[in-house]
Amino acid sequence: MSAREAVARRPATLERPTRHRLARRIDRAARWLVLRVLAHIVGGELVIVEGPMRLTLGALVPERPLRAVLDVRSERFYRQLLRGSIGLCESYMDGLWECDDLVALTRIAALNVGALDRLRRLFSPVLIPLQRWGRWLARNTPVRSRKRIAAHYDLGNELFGLFLDSTMMYSCAVFERPGASLEEASLTKLEQVCAKLELGGEDHLLEIGTGWGGLAIYAAQHYGCRVTTTTISREQHAYACERVREAGLEHRVTVLLQDYRELSGRYDKLVSIEMIEAVGWQYFPTFFRRCSELLADDGAMLLQAITIDDRAYEVEKAGKSFINTYIFPGGCLPSMEIISRSVARVTDLQQVHLEDITAHYATTLERWRERFLAAAEQLSELGYDERFRRLWELYLCYCEGGFRERRIQDVQLLLAKPGYHVEPPSGARAELAAA
């Protein structure tokens, strides 16, 4: 070996141990910082296990004893955790940690996230403009929206069929009684939506966000109305068209493959069930403007929306999380304030009725999670590997914990045009006043 070759090789042989030592120092520093932060948790007990070591943080609260045991399999977990929910998700997919109760863990996190919100608001004058600019560049244009919807809803109808009920409703169900099945609760929700809209045989209903066709078919079968429903998911469009054909409802139900911005015509009633979360914060006013334009002068619109607390909206909307990166790319939860502001600024719609159904979503997600975990073997046979299954398990638990602690909410909002004179649903005035 020449002297030149020896010199050229020397840095490469020394680089690996140096890099390894540096990584370990970073991991230890990250661990120290994470444990310092976790030392102040409230609302539950978190037990961190590292081999033979057990560290207990927080304390049990008698009225709701939340406890989670987190088994750290690699020190890299702490470094990943400093990246927020994306790091938490990726480290779980990679098997760097396990937990005996992911829902309890996310509930404890939801109870403590307020401190993080305050910290983010402190730095928001610097961070938010930069984040907002980045998210604006990646906003949900019609072309980009189709790609992002496909990334979730075109994962395969078989996947969703394994954990949804026969109605294929992928939204909050309503459990009128404790022992109700998931299918019964989904049908209750469908009936509730149609009743609030006061649907009749002469109505032409527009649905923005078809899903797998459950609402369109229910409305046509039980209320005799015409339905035009639209989606930008090719998988959902094909599935919904087939269901409509099987039900013999082609004369009443039209399934479109169009973006809401491309729709035309005028409709008596409009419904959108948990679709607004995919609109993107830059397009909330556009969404409500189009809905208003598509409604007849005496029309009404029912919006079912997952919302985030008004105080967290600004810091959340421009940020990146594992939900809007891995699950619903480009998604953004609106707040009630931003919904009200958009409606007031760009439409002539008025709020008629508001109902909070958040508690039902926690139960819905619990049922989905149980069915999803029970279908592990079928998921594997369909080609969904362990990393994917861990991602979706965390997603379902993460959302359930968020709803149980009301970090996020789910509401049904009835909006009406100036010519709408139908009496609101029973008890609506009292609920609206209370809200």
**What is the average of the pLDDT values?**
89
Main β-sheet, spatial strand arrangement: 7-6-5-8-9-11-10
Say how many strands there are: 11
What's the main sheet like? 7 strands, mixed
SSE pattern: HEEEHHEHHHHEHEHEEHEHHHEHHHEH
Helix content: 40-55%
The outline comes out as: elongated
Helix/strand structural class: alpha/beta
Percent of residues in beta strands?
15-25%
- How many DSSP H or I helices? 17
Structural write-up:
Strand 8 (267-273), helix 10 and strand 9 (295-308) form a beta-alpha-beta unit. Helix 3 (85-93) runs antiparallel to helix 16 (386-404), helix 4 crosses helix 11 (310-317) and helix 10 crosses helix 13. The protein has 435 residues and is of the alpha/beta class. The protein is built from 17 helices and eleven strands. Helices cover 53% and strands 17% of the residues. The strands form two sheets. A seven-stranded mixed sheet has the order 7-6-5-8-9-11-10, with helices on both faces. A four-stranded mixed sheet has the order 2-1-3-4. The chain is elongated. The protein has helices at 3-38, 76-81, 85-93, 102-137, 142-153, 157-163, 182-196, 214-223, 234-246, 284-294, 310-317, 322-327, 336-346, 358-374, 376-381, 386-404, 428-434; strands at residues 45-50, 53-58, 67-72, 97-99, 204-208, 226-230, 253-256, 267-273, 295-308, 350-356, 408-416.
